[in-house]
Write a structure and sequence with these properties.
The structure holds two protein chains of two kinds. Chain A is mainly α. Chain A has a single domain, classed as MetI-like (MetI-like fold, Orthogonal Bundle), CATH 1.10.3720. Chain A has twelve helices and no strands. Helix content of chain B is 24%, strand content 32%. Classes of the chains: A mainly alpha, B alpha+beta. At the A-B interface, helix 7 and helix 8 of A face strand 6, helix 3 and helix 5 of B. Bound molecules: adenosine-5'-triphosphate (ATP) and magnesium ion (MG).
Chain lengths: 272, 395
């Protein structure tokens, strides 16, 4: 009898714990979303009245407009470049043996360890040194460096999931190395490439620390613009921007899920 | 008689003369055009392969004859796949030359070798339909679309997969996938067909059916085939010739009957078919025959491996379980033994018996009668045949 009770208690408290953890994960997003609809001009919770005027302000505020545009441009460029470069490196690391392979791997993955502000500061000093200033090329380069490890890992895992015998079979059937790559390797790699690009895009779109160093008023990305804003104002506009942020990212993931299935994109499912 | 790798017997003259004209292997088969008269389908000449410090394949010479079904047989890790990969061009030999149809291909990449290969795991392209899988090799060769369609259909019919053209490989059973893999390899009219343990992932019944079908297709097309397996039954039933390998070396090359009845060394004798080892003593040796004493019995044996052994030295006599017989205890010309266990096998009984000298032997007794008459513990006489015995030096 007592045993039954204790198992039930355990089960209930287990569920409660899981529920609490999940609640804490989504709580910030929920609070911010509710705050974004607050009628009053202060960031407070819970709101006393509801309005959508902060969204209007967010979308018409000049710094946010240019920031969003800059972010989209930088994200598109950096994730695409990172994908191209990262795929090349991933294939080289997976398929070929060469000297200093371990060193190369270490260097490529080092941005995971080096703090973003170090990367940003270093690039700022470099860029100033060669008089490149705080232009877009430096900003894009910064983002490429920051997201590259994620792209390489994603592509590398997908490569690992491709059975080498498929490529051997193709070769025996008369496919030259270029044809094997185009007809077998790349098509099978597609989910990995998409997921790599998607990770890169989301990370780049959210990147703040390194960007803070290498952006100017003209090139600032949305997170940097938001930081600038919060230092001057404390109204719910920022919450509204956050909601837009969440919506855009969620839209990207939904799209990926529809096209490929999220499980495959995130590499948690076998591709075969 | 059995033969070593160096002086092999052409398989062509053993093939049935009334073989139907191949319908796929038509006159434009490149092998037919380019092969020099008398050239082997594949010739490995002094080929050697190392992986770091491991020698996967010792210096090897092997001739595969045009149109023959050759099986590489040996335990895991003996170098079968390595040998196959060298023929396919997936691996580069560290020494030696490889010729296909008389043409030097040692440095030719796989995509120029015109070789068909079938893997154990099928290796079908998962992002292509059955028809596109089969047509892949033709597309890579720039064959016109209409011809591709016709040849794909023809080859799918050959492997009895009409109507499966638009399926995805995922929607096929293991046996069906293996047929697709076979069709994909055959459609390019390969000079040689290589199969690496193609049936070992299939269940027993399906495996049997696929074996028969492969043999039928191979006979019809007359395509030179090199088949890898570690299943000796499969090797015996399919092959024109068997290459028995162990530890990176070819131990014996011969017809199934040769390797089964006249094994050249202990390894071959033990690996092909079940075998009993009886301790004996060498009496006289003359050439490749010898007389040995098995307890009180005297038997003539094949003794090519006993060269230079002095009379009186101990030898091991190998005898198959189905060659031994069970007689009443004390009958003349038998070895005394005692029944240890009976194992029911359906069509026969495996009777395990202990000799007076302590060795355990297995006797294959047809039917089920032994179950009733030879309960464990019964004393019996073990009849050893006059012929079919092979002797080797003890280990
Ligand atoms: N790529 C490789 N790197 C290092 N060693 C290898 C490699 N491929 C094979 N070997 C070694 O070479 C030897 C022969 O291997 P191989 O694959 O040819 O054996 P196999 O007869 O096909 O065995 P199995 O029946 O298990 O497939 C083995 O000792 C194996 O460990
Ligand atoms: Mg193998």
């Amino acid at each position: 009898m007592g045993r039954r009770l204790s198992t039930r208690l355990l089960r209930v408290s287990g569920r409660l714990l899981v529920g609490l953890i999940l609640a804490f994960i989504v709580l910030p997003a929920v609070v911010v979303t509710i705050a974004a609809f607050n009628e009053r001009a202060i960031l407070s919770f819970p709101p006393t009245g509801y309005s959508t005027r902060w969204f209007t302000r967010a979308l018409t505020y000049r710094d946010f407009q240019t920031g969003l545009w800059n972010s989209l441009v930088v994200t598109a460029w950096s994730s695409t470049l990172a994908l191209l470069v990262g795929t090349g490196f991933a294939i080289a690391l997976k398929r070929y043996a060469f000297r200093f392979k371990g060193t190369l791997e270490g260097v490529l993955l080092s941005p995971l360890i080096v703090p973003h502000f170090t990367i940003g500061l270093g690039l700022l000093m470099l860029a100033t040194g060669i008089a490149a200033g705080q232009g877009f090329p430096v900003l894009v380069l910064t983002h490429v460096i920051v997201v590259l490890p994620f792209v390489i890992r994603s592509v590398f895992i997908s490569l690992q999931n491709i059975d080498g015998r498929l490529e051997l079979a193709a070769a025996s059937l008369g496919a030259r190395p270029g044809a094997v790559l185009a007809t077998i390797t790349l098509p099978l790699l597609a989910p990995g490439l998409v997921s790599g690009w998607l990770f890169a895009a989301i990370l780049s779109f959210n990147e703040f620390t390194a960007s803070l160093f290498v952006t100017s008023q003209a090139t600032q990305t949305l997170p940097v613009a938001m930081y600038g804003y919060v230092r001057e104002f404390a109204d719910p506009t920022l919450a509204a921007v956050s909601v837009i942020y969440i919506a855009v990212t969620a839209a990207l993931l939904t799209f990926a899920n529809m096209v490929l299935g999220l499980g495959r994109v995130l590499n948690v499912e076998q591709s075969r | 008689m059995s033969s070593r790798a160096a002086d092999v017997i052409p398989a062509a003259d053993r093939r049935s003369p009334d073989r139907p004209t191949p319908d796929l292997a038509t006159s434009d088969l490149p092998a037919a055009r380019t092969a020099r008269r008398g050239a082997a389908a594949v010739l490995l000449d002094g080929v050697l392969k190392r992986f770091g410090t491991v020698t996967a394949l010792e210096e090897t010479r092997l001739r595969v004859e045009q149109g023959e079904f050759l099986t590489l047989l040996g335990p895991s890790g003996c170098g079968k796949t390595t040998l196959l990969n060298l023929m396919a061009g997936f691996l580069e030999a560290d020494a030696g030359e490889i010729l296909i149809g008389g043409e030097q291909v040692t440095a030719t990449p796989p995509y120029e070798r015109q070789i068909g290969i079938v893997f154990q795991n099928y290796a079908l392209f998962p992002h292509m339909s059955v028809a596109r899988n089969v047509g892949y090799g033709l597309r890579m060769r720039g064959v016109p679309k209409r011809e591709i369609a016709a040849r794909v259909e023809e080859t799918l019919a050959l492997v009895k997969l009409q109507g499966f053209a638009d399926r995805s490989p995922r929607q096929l059973s293991g046996g069906q996938q293996q047929r697709v893999a076979l069709a994909r390899a055959l459609v390019i009219r390969p000079r040689v067909l290589l199969l690496d343990e193609p049936f070992s992932a299939l269940d027993k019944n399906l495996r049997g059916a696929m074996q028969v079908e492969l043999k039928e297709i191979q006979r019809r097309l007359g395509v030179t085939t090199v088949f890898v397996t570690h299943d000796q039954g499969e090797a015996l039933s399919l092959s024109d010739r068997i290459v028995v390998m162990s530890a990176g070396r070819i131990r014996q090359v011969g017809t199934p009957d040769e390797v089964y009845r006249h094994p050249q060394d202990r390894f071959v004798a033990g690996f092909i078919g079940d075998v009993n080892t009886l301790p004996a003593r060498l009496e006289t040796l003359s050439g490749v025959r010898a007389t040995v004493a098995l307890g009180d019995l005297r038997r003539e044996v094949e003794a090519a491996a006993l060269r230079d052994r002095p009379p009186g030295s101990p030898v091991d006599v190998f005898v198959r379980p189905d060659h031994l017989g069970v007689r009443p205890a004390g009958e003349g010309g038998t070895l005394p033994a005692r029944v240890a266990a009976l194992v029911y096998q359906g069509s026969h009984i495996d009777l395990h018996a202990d000799l007076a000298t302590g060795e355990r032997v297995v006797v294959r007794v047809p039917g089920q009668g032994a179950l009733a008459t030879h309960a464990p513990g019964t004393a019996i006489g073990l009849a050893v045949p006059q012929g079919g015995l092979v002797a080797f030096p003890p280990e």
